[in-house]
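Cross-posting from the modeling subforum.

Setting up a comparison between two proteins and wanted a second pair of eyes on the formatting. Protein 1 (sequence, then structure tokens):
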Amino acid sequence: MNRDTVIATALDLLDEVGLDAVSTRRLAKRLGVEQPSLYWHFRTKKDLLDAMAEAAMAPHATAPLPRAGDDWRDWFRENTRSFRRTLLMRRDGARLHAGTTPTADLARLRRKMDFLLASGVPERDAQMAMLAAGRFTVGSVLEEQADLGSDLPADVPLIDHESAFEAGLTLILDGLARRVGT
């Protein structure tokens, strides 16, 4: 049993039972080991959850970085969409990700910020736009993954999560474009 196997098995367990039911006891049983064996790889459950969150973000973490000449608005929109798609790939993906710090992704994050700055976005606005888009996306996916649509009265309209996400993302981009003057 190695660290990668533990993480992969934990993510499979997450998809099967949801975040609330993921436990080190259940994971150890799935792996066919005693629970203390997990502490060889992860000192705490939080360490395990952080590693799971990092692994779950791999599709977004390998998405293409912006290149010189790219339109910052098009890139920002696609980057945010990629983040959303990645969160939706896992059951409770947004809950797993919420509150984590992207320590493994700092170099990529710096490249993204450098691109926005080179595109004429003021530094503080770039920081706040990335933060706002990230939090908006996590919140949108949290609501989507917790959708109780089938429990609503028949006269309450259902939310089209993708359309709502796109509308909110457009508002963020339009506000940032006004700040940039483009």
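Protein 2 (same layout):
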Amino acid sequence: MLQQLKNHGRKLALIFVLLNIQILSTFALGNSKSWQEIDWLDIAGEGGAVWLCLVWLVGVLSTRPDGPVTRLLFWGFACFLIASGQDLLDEIVRLPEATVWNHAVESIPMPIGMLLMSIGLLYWYREQQALNEQLRKRERGLRDHRRMDKITGLADAQYLRQQLEAELNMARAEGLPTSILMLDIDDFREINRSLGMGEGDRLLRELTELLLLNLRRRDLLCRYAGDRFAIVLPATCQLMAELLAQQLEGVCKHFAFHARNSDLAQFHTVSTGIATDGLDVQLTDDDPVEQLLRRANYRLAKAKEERVLKVA
């Protein structure tokens, strides 16, 4: 929580400066009211509104990373805070009758804040929908399966084999193809060596979220081994699987990973290998799951060899 607030230090400093300017300007141009003139019920109501705006503002910044949604919510609460703060100051300070700016500060920020908050909440809703979609993909069949990878939260290779076997049996009965896509991070050992094991694990977690966002709802993502992921692609032919692999390679290539011990974003490529059962390619009945996995791993190894030759 404190670390998150530190990341929003500029926003907190800005609102602190704005509130101080507002308070100092009001007291400099007006006179404090006597105790008898102050309506303490209004003080309690408007003061409570100010404190709630401040609590919500700090709460948003302490629980969210920087981004468009966070900035919209921040400025929405900031506008509420400034408008409510001026209402509160007017209960304490008497300004000259010719002063008009205080009425503008009370009135104008409120609708602006409402608009910004509405847009921010709309984007927040869409953001939650995307996260819920990730969870639905992650939860496929996992409620009865306890073996999950601790780093990525994905199912392991054993669960992959169980689901792939079930998928192959169902697809063959319906005459549909099934593809498996292997995805491996290039030079992952060098990443662990240069950035540390902790940052390597964090890269795996962030790449997991990226892959889940870019997979279809029916696809199943598992951690196969080390930095290798396996994706079951139901009702997917070889050509469609190749297109999906190209899309995932492009997404990963442009993913900016910000290591904690480096100020520069780092970009990492991935290699993929595909194997398909069904339509033009039919595996034998002798352990088709292992055949499919062997073929996908072999093609992944060939892809990595070709990449090394290109680099050389």
